[in-house]
Amino acid sequence: MGPPTMPGADRTPLASPGSGPPPGWPGSAGGPTAGWPGSAGGPTAGWPTPAAGGSNPADASPWWSDALSDPWRDPAAPTAVMVPGVVAPGTEPEPVTDPDAPGRPTLRHLLLIPVITALLAGTLGGALGYAFAVRGGAGATVLGGAPAEVPALAQRKPESLAGVAERVLPSVVTVRVSSLGGTSEGSGFIATADGHVITNDHVVAGGSGKASVVFNDGSTAPATIVGQDPESDIAVIKVSRPGLRPVEFGDSDALAVGDPVLAIGSPLSLANTVTAGIVSALDRTMQAGEPGGPVRYYAAIQTDAAVNHGNSGGPLVDGAGRVVGVNSTIKSLVAEGQEAGNIGLAFAIPINQAKRVTQDIIGTGKARRTVIGARADGPTGVAGGGLRLAEVEPSGPADGAGLKVGDVILKINGRPMTEPTDLTALVRKFAPGSVVTVEYRRGSARQNTSVTLAADAK
């Protein structure tokens, strides 16, 4: 076996073993290294050397047992000079791989790197977003107080607007009536447990007698028209359905300007709509009706609760959830023939009047009209106002109270009279047999009298 070599070194010795170094080389006689260890006369003269051809190297060299096979540790081993870059054919060294050297990335590594980077970036971005959006960032001003607990609908106070709406909505219906011109739609509310529903006369007017109602849960039921009174604009229809919940009635005479109210119905076909407002005026005398049709008179409750087409016939409810009026008319600034819309003024028939008319219709099929037995021809146009009587019916209520043609009616139950509509509308607010106080002027004298109102002969 020859001496070991470094990778890439030439293994061809420049001198054959045992021939000695060339003259003048280190270790040769008279060379520059004369006296070096191993040279003649050097400090290692007399050192033991391996015996040539010995069979047991340990016997020839007491230093190492493998001295003859390890030339790097034997000072007497021949020297071989290697020339780098020259490799004998067929003697290429085996490739050496450093296990600690970085390897070439695989496809899996290339895919994992952007995925992990994206996850880390998303996590960091989410954390920063939460910190700045929810907590406002370090040192940011916190707007508002701590969120208060909002009670569930069932836990809201009964006198709250939501509590009132919750109680009344199941008793409000959408009324649909078929006619030759199509289907008219309005609102109504359940008045009795056996299915009587109050609505406006103008909702069912011109119908074929076929009607239906839609309840607040979306279910429907057929209805029949029981009766109607065009001049009071009240109609009654009836449905057959178990478990109906009638409304609670209030007292419209006990209302005051400023009382809170809710209007409930189906404006513009939007069922279960609730709007809120206040009573903005009382005894607002109304004269309404379509050209060629009946003239309707009533002393209305004025409200600023939003009311639109489709609210007609629906209830006006006070702060305790009691029905105090029937929504009927709106005022609008539109030209003739144009569609009217809410401008913050709506008018409802007082429920005391609507109840009386409803009971008449259910009991007899028609309603009685309350009269005073006199007719006014218009305002006097003089200071103090009032309505001058143009006619007094003989043996009528006014005649029985001593009123005469030419007398000027100033007030009825303290309500000033300024237009002929006022006398008719305000009288119809009361039931037949009611006694009202009439303040009037005859000549220059102001007087009072009590008039017992009556029902007309029709």
From TrEMBL:
CDD domains: cpPDZ_Deg_HtrA-like. Residues 361-442 form the PDZ domain. Keywords: Hydrolase, Membrane, Protease, Transmembrane, Transmembrane helix. It is an enzyme of class 3 (hydrolase). SUPFAM superfamilies: PDZ domain-like, Trypsin-like serine proteases. Its EC number is 3.4.21.-. Residues 45-55 have a biased composition (Low complexity). The keyword Cell division does not apply. The chain crosses the membrane at residues 110-133. GO terms for molecular function: peptidase activity. Residues 27-44 have a biased composition (Gly residues). Residues 1-77 are annotated as: Disordered. GO terms for biological process: proteolysis. This is Serine protease PepD. It comes from Micromonospora vinacea.
